[in-house]
Design goal:
Layout: H1 2-16, H2 26-41, H3 45-49, H4 58-64, H5 70-81, E1 95-98, E2 109-112, H6 114-135, E3 145-148, E4 153-155, E5 161-163, H7 165-171, E6 181-182, H8 185-188, H9 193-204, E7 209-214, H10 216-230, E8 244-247, H11 253-262, E9 268-275, E10 278-282, E11 291-293, E12 299-305, H12 306-312, E13 323-324, E14 333-340, E15 347-358, E16 361-368, E17 372-373, E18 380-381, H13 382-396, E19 400-409, E20 416-424, H14 431-445, H15 447-453, E21 463-466, H16 471-478, H17 496-505
Parallel strand pairs: 1-5, 3-6, 3-7, 7-8, 8-9, 20-21
Antiparallel strand pairs: 1-2, 4-5, 9-10, 10-11, 11-16, 12-13, 12-14, 14-15, 15-16, 17-18, 19-20
Length: 507
């Protein structure tokens, strides 16, 4: 065991000397990736159909291949799931990541090639570890265990594997990594999430846990379960050497206060941008909230401004406004378009980002294309609502467990309002005061919202419902979406989620 750990640390030191994610050669890396993708995939079904042999540069790439949503690529993915190979990608694909659905809609199946697993997800994870060791001061991190939350797997015919990305990656790890992580695979891959949580608690409470990886909402749920089980008040009473939380999936700021409290402010936090489709970036500086864009990890990036996307999203003119990395600018909301080393060609992943620096390329996540409200012309984004919730909670000394927002029209339909349902650890003593303060923060953060709120002419004061304890957990459980990356959308233009939640809340 000591020999394996010694070998691991030698590998770490060697890899530290090379900055694999450096953006100094970002544009060169991106051009090389595109050329390699086109060359290797020219004889696939997709490559033949769209004349890959004629594509010589990015201009040709845009000319011959349309921008795609999941539904556009679904017929090809179905063929791949039925056993056909060399459809979208040149190498065999036997793994499909089931995208972490935020809704009750059908799940997406994202193809995962050998190249995607090793040259994207694993490579980025290694670079993340190197960065943590190189740039952040951790004393005990690798002398203990890393607690990792993963989903489940299904093995289907023809040795195809489908399931959560995290589970597929953990299953592919070498056995020696078990020296550094918890739980063991026989627990980590349990399908029943509630049973899995109980087993994870049993197997970890007496171990030296020094780091945790997962989605903030589910890790917080797990921490509270651990405290109930042990009759302790602070997580640091159980794991005194815990010093790092690697998170992603949702905005962390609404949860930070609770994590700080439960860990006596001992935790350092590292944000990641890791999806089923690829590992795109991570927080490489502890003093900054933005992330470094990974430009040499098997992903070719394109962008379209949110303004143009909203105008042309169902129009062929959308193609005229897509740009590559060389044309992006600071301070603009961009819809992200990716081409992956699993054959997702010019795929609109649905995320909105904003660049904060161009050399190297650094960015923040602003929200989702389907998670903003513009019913009344307010253009409210999840970035705004998360920040407003964070500030309001701090003002009233509250802890938010979860929330969602949707528009509502009044009976006369002369104007409308935003309807919120929020689950607190402890409810506010004065809900009206909290609501008014939340409204003021939204005005400060979003000028369009402020304009539409003027004199209540278009949008009235928000209405806030207090959610009962575990409401969001129970809703996800009813949809068979416990654990993993599953979550309820923060913002929705329709009332599908909030109406279901209000109904469940009133039972």
């Amino acid at each position: 065991m000591n020999l394996i750990k010694s070998t691991f640390f030698k590998f770490i030191k060697k890899r530290q000397k090379t900055n694999h994610y450096s953006s100094k050669n970002s544009l060169i890396n991106q051009n090389l990736i595109l050329k390699k993708f086109i060359s290797n995939s020219k004889n696939t079904f997709f490559g033949n159909k769209f004349n890959f042999k004629k594509i010589k540069n990015y201009s040709d790439f845009k000319k011959f291949i349309s921008v795609n949503k999941y539904e556009d690529l679904l017929p090809y993915i179905k063929d791949m799931k039925n056993g056909k190979q060399r459809v979208l990608w040149y190498s065999n694909i036997n793994n499909f990541a089931i995208s972490s659905g935020t809704t009750d809609s059908k799940s997406k199946y994202i193809p995962l090639s050998y190249e995607a697993i090793n040259d994207c997800h694993k490579k980025a994870s290694k670079d993340l570890i190197i960065t943590i060791l190189k740039k952040m001061n951790f004393k005990k991190l690798f002398f203990g265990k890393c607690l990792i939350f993963v989903g489940s797997l299904n093995v289907i015919e023809r040795n195809f594997i489908e399931g959560d990305l995290s589970a597929i990656l953990v299953k592919s790890l070498p056995l020696w990594t078990s020296l550094f992580r918890l739980p063991k695979n026989n627990i980590a891959l349990i399908k029943d999430w509630e049973i899995k949580v109980d087993k994870m608690i049993e197997s970890s409470i007496n171990k030296n846990v020094t780091s945790v990886v997962g989605v903030p909402s589910w890790i917080l749920f797990f921490f509270n379960k651990v405290l109930q089980k042990t009759n302790k008040k602070k997580i640091t009473e159980i794991w005194p050497n815990l010093e790092l939380f690697i998170h992603g999936g949702i905005e962390f700021s609404p949860y930070k206060k609770q994590f700080d409290y439960l860990t006596n402010h001992k935790l350092k936090y590292v944000n990641t941008y890791n999806a089923s489709e690829g590992f795109f970036g991570f927080q490489d500086k502890n003093s900054f909230d933005d992330m470094i864009l990974l430009t040499n990890h098997g992903i070719f990036y394109e962008f379209i401004s949110l303004e143009h996307y909203c105008i042309f999203q169902n129009n062929s003119n959308l193609l005229n406004y897509t740009i590559d990395l060389s044309k992006v600018r600071i301070g603009i909301d961009y819809v992200l378009i990716i081409t992956t080393n699993s054959g997702l060609w010019r795929y609109i992943i649905g995320d909105i980002i904003e660049f904060t620096k161009l050399n190297p390329f650094r960015f923040i996540i602003k929200g989702r294309t389907k998670q903003f409200i513009n019913t009344f012309g307010e253009e409210l984004m999840v970035h705004n609502s998360d920040k407003a919730i964070e500030l309001s909670s701090k003002k009233f000394k509250l802890n938010v467990v979860d929330y969602t927002v949707a528009p509502n029209f009044n009976v006369e339909k002369t104007n409308g309002y935003h309807e919120w349902i929020i689950e607190f650890s402890d409810n506010p003593q004065n809900l009206d005061a909290f609501t008014k303060y939340l409204d003021e923060k939204l005005k400060n953060l979003n000028s369009d919202y402020e304009a539409k709120r003027s004199k209540n002419l278009i949008i009235s004061l928000p209405k806030v419902h207090l959610a009962r304890k575990n409401l969001f957990f129970d809703w996800l459980k009813s949809k068979n979406k416990l654990g993993g990356q599953n979550k309820i959308p923060r913002l929705s233009s329709n009332r599908n989620y909030i109406d279901q939640l209000i109904k469940l809340n009133n039972k």
